[in-house]
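A common beginner's mistake is to predict each chain separately and then try to dock the pieces by hand. The better habit, illustrated here, is to supply every component at once so that their relative placement is modeled jointly.
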Amino acid sequence: MGGNDGPAGGTRIDDGTGGGLVIGLNAVIVAVTDERPRVLVVRRAGHGLGTPSEPSPYDDLAALPFGPLDPASDRTLELALRRWVREQAGIGVGYVEQLYTFGDQNRDPRERTGGPRVISIGYLTLVREDAAPAQAGSRWRDWYDYLPWEDWRGGRPAVLDDELQPSLLVWCDAASDDAGRRRRRERVDIAFGFGGTPWDGYRVLDRYELLYEAGLVTESKRDRGDDGGEISGRLGWAMGFDHRRILATAIGRLRGKIKYRPVVFELLPETFTLLQLQRVVEALAGQPLHKQNFRRLVEKGGLVEGTGRLASGTGGRPAERFRFRRDVLRERPTPGVGLPSLPSSS
Amino acid sequence: MGGNDGPAGGTRIDDGTGGGLVIGLNAVIVAVTDERPRVLVVRRAGHGLGTPSEPSPYDDLAALPFGPLDPASDRTLELALRRWVREQAGIGVGYVEQLYTFGDQNRDPRERTGGPRVISIGYLTLVREDAAPAQAGSRWRDWYDYLPWEDWRGGRPAVLDDELQPSLLVWCDAASDDAGRRRRRERVDIAFGFGGTPWDGYRVLDRYELLYEAGLVTESKRDRGDDGGEISGRLGWAMGFDHRRILATAIGRLRGKIKYRPVVFELLPETFTLLQLQRVVEALAGQPLHKQNFRRLVEKGGLVEGTGRLASGTGGRPAERFRFRRDVLRERPTPGVGLPSLPSSS
DNA sequence: CCAATTATTCTCAACGTGAGCATAAGAGCC
DNA sequence: GGCTCTTATGCTCACGTTGAGAATAATTGG
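With all components supplied together, the output reads:
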């Protein structure tokens, strides 16, 4: 969302009580290219995909595409999303899933200066990047640029121990009483896997929210009125509005979903090698997988079937091309790629 | 929701385009008492918890509690929900989780006659029934009254084979072309577990939506303008608006959640016997569980700890009272009660 | 032909899960 | 008290799944 009040923005609502209400939809449009999970962002916060407006202090920030709901013509929320994503970005999205509705006060900073309250319904959509090149005003970004601590593919991210743990512990200790300190500490331990607690790849939102509460991300400072936060640093790039929260929600949801629904295939071409498939799953999950076991999982699990054709040389022995095996939907209730706790090798 | 436009209804929005927009919140308030999963319903559709209005043809239908969002004073959506649930039902809810935002056109039949488009943000909340007696205008209902085919505790529900399968197959065959027939058939098989596909307890919404599409539930007839559907039958009781869909969403979500988050304990007293715990899980999951294995799961899994005290005689050997072991949150990423595919004995 | 690289097949141990037997400890009844 | 009924609790066993890695196959580039 954004809180656009122009034609590309949300649907204005006047409830007679004050600043009013705007309702609209945000899209987290995800693709995986070159083993990187990518999300489509628009250049300047507060814009629709291509509509410029007046300058603001946060113009540099990326934002998620935002579009309106037209109550007169959009029969469903999902159709509204598909409509404006097609109109604005030229993308015909395939998989679409509603994520969450965001409605906190002041999620749009302009509410402070009399702007309307902006409610945004977040959607996750999956596309293949080649089918959806970024247009002017928008671009694809590696989602780990915004949440670097989520990528464990190269091992445990250093920022966790160098920055996050110390800063978070300071915040825990800063609680007003002992019970508060304990509560904060428990939340931090569970979310970030400190103190022996295992890392849980799905708690993406929990982690971002703790960092926000602890004042460690630029957005917290901005929302408090401190205008000075830098836009990027070791704690990732900031986004406009609460869009990093929406992104975190999307990642967590997607990581959970691949375990029990075959959604990965929405991100892959018709046929693919098992290594390609593995790399896409790893990109989403942010963790490395054991190659042989992964193969066993998807093959014996009936998730894919060989095509008999081989992929052209990628450096070693040619790999067979596989395709998604649709019948698996009938056979198993939860056909997905279960992720291990956190393995090591390849 | 409901599409209340009175003070107890949603927040009116005038977008200048036509009938306007109303936004509000629906609560699926769940408790488990006497081994039955219950949901709080209000007596007449289209009402807030206690506010009467003009008569309508669907006054007999139950509906879910609905309340407004006050953009001026409710800081978050969840706080809005807590506020009006407390005000209207006198219930201080504990666990609250946003479910889904419902915004299909004509989900409120009054849209057809010029009423505003009603967007509703659905919430799931868990309470203990003893802490929340139903007040005038509302009552607790077994949720399987509305979705009888979801309760497998007494074995496979007869209605599945007697009514649902035949009627659904007729609907499948009624598709316009062969591809359509195949598509319908696949959806039906997967959702209802026909043709060898296993039953999946989480697909509650898929099932309801198929029945709705196939015109087998009263709500489909009502929404098509056929006014004659009966309010209850072997396919369960109807609800106002799309509230049965919201209920189905809640059940599916909750069934999924108990597997990896210890939410069941929100429905139980401070201490409980393992059988009590098992009955609550069975009530939610709609399936029987193997007693010894269930015990092993929750005990060895570190989910509960014994208190040393015994429960007074319930007919046999006294059982030890257990309590939820909070530390499990730090130890395991997904502490919940994993459900088996579909066991048999007790 | 050799080295490097990726693909593919197998093995093995550890663990979790489904199912059921066996025993324990109460209540009610004779 | 002894018997039966009922629920609680402990234990075993077979089997499938999972984590880890060894071993072998088929390419490409020297």
